[in-house]
Amino acid sequence: MTEHAGEASTSNFIKQIIDADLKSDRLHDKRWAPPPATASDLAHAAPDSARIRTRFPPEPNGFLHIGHAKSIWVNFGMAQQYGGVCHLRFDDTNPEKESQAYVDAIIDAVRWLGYDWREGDQSHLYFASDYFEVMYQFACALIKANLAYVDEQSAQEMREHRGTLTSPGVNSPWRDRAPEESLERFEQMRAGHHPDGAMALRARIDMASPNINLRDPVIYRIRHAHHHRTGNAWCIYPMYSWAHPVEDALEGITHSLCTLEFEDQRPFYDWTLNTLAELGLLKRPLPHQHEFARLNMSYVVTSKRKLLQLVQDGHVSGWDDPRLPTLAGLRRRGYTPSAIRLFCERTGVSKANSRIDYSVLEQALRDDQDPVAPRAVAILDPVKLVITNLAPDQTIICQAPRHPHLPELGQREFAFTRELWIEREDFMQEPAKKYFRLYPGNQVRLKYAFVVTCTGCVTDPTGRVTEVHAEYLPHTRSGTPGADALKVKGTVTWVSAADAQPAIIHLYDRLFNEPYPDAGERQFLDHLNPDSVRTVNAWLEPGIDLSTPVWQFERLGYFAPDAANCTAQAVVINRITTLKDTWATQTQKS
Ligand code: ATP
Ligand code: MG
Hints:
About 25% of the residues lie in helices and about 25% in strands. By secondary structure, the chain is α/β, with parallel strands linked by helices.
């Protein structure tokens, strides 16, 4: 498995880029001052002690999901590997959809994943909104240099005049207005003299450029909206494509790693930074943008809009519903940070878009937890097994390793008594072919205890089995000499009815029953899996410590106590995943 992981990390082309940059003198004379650092702030600043700087730039308009985990892993991971620093920067330039609650949830998720934006006593947690004044000044400088103008066309007119992939755009009638006039207008925009959409500030580049993003892109728009951090101080907000390179530069980012859909924006990213450097506002070396493929996963949706719809329409219980691919949901489901990081490593970083099967995430959890998760027995669909040759007050203490490969964890002890709980599917009145478990006349081993001979069962008037009967063979006790002399084909797990702990277990499955629920024109809500959760009243072996994050229940899979939902009356446990990929077996069968 580690071999596979190694392969994935060597295919990480971003490392090749960073290696080459560090060898060349691209980052020569890189200095550092706390953001927002303009050229004048850096003129006398000390050399940057970080070899590289990356950033994870979420917009606080939703919860993070597994795709963001990939971006976090790439950005923080590269910084760690190269003696660099990764900033956590909130790209909060879109006030209507953003909120402090999302900021808090994102901080929590990044920290949970195991990453830190502190470097000694410096915290590299930043907000784009802290740069609004500098950005505004930069925009004014562009206007004065006749590199930006206030356009008073309507949004509709701008769209119509933008041209297409095959035809050039048409210059705006406002394109050649005097810089002083644009500046005055821009000041009025800031002062709130104009309604939303009345005018916008555009970079003055080339309406005939083959790259539509260079056809005088809008860089500031009017939005009379309350911002969760700056309140009503601003009613103009910078556009993402302009704000992003400026934010990167003001923070001294060396490698701005983003997803492929920004590839077409790179010429404008470079135009913005080079122009501001030529105007003497930014100091070189400037950040470079590099794109990698988004992480797409089957059986989930990761678009924030669709996640929000699932939450708002009540298809799930909230952003942290254990069936969602949000980090909050995966965490509650029981996924560990190390399993998610392993998943990111295995799926690698590439230039080509692809879909990762959901089973890769499940396998990462198994591989992460198999070596460490303590073992226990749980019975999910219980039926009573009565050991008829054991007296009601008789108790035989049995032992089992806490972990089969970690003897240092010691043994767990539990009682073998007359009444036990076993899985209903471990008994059949009329055995099917190749059925080796309990049926009248058959012998099986009760795991860590004795071989028993099934003698019959009791049924209710509907024919449903209410009790299974068996006799134990005292000389077959597990772990004693000669215990294995009697060969049996089936092994059955059990817990003593006398000391079993009750638990409510949520058996989660995939939220969608289609691998690509939102592909093409599909309505993703039509493909919700109606059986994505089943809740059972189970019995657990005594002594299960609910503060242990992940348990392997023998034969059943990996389970996590749902701490937030446990009450004094009820222990609530989530199944993270089964021991094997049950979806793969289903597909093979069908
Ligand atoms: P939105 O639709 O709101 O823009 P987003 O998923 O792009 O959603 P951001 O908050 O802008 O959300 O994302 C923060 C960072 O995470 C960006 O750099 C983005 O490229 C990256 N990112 C988002 N989704 C994925 C993904 N599926 N795989 C890899 N990186 C991702
Ligand atoms: Mg985005």
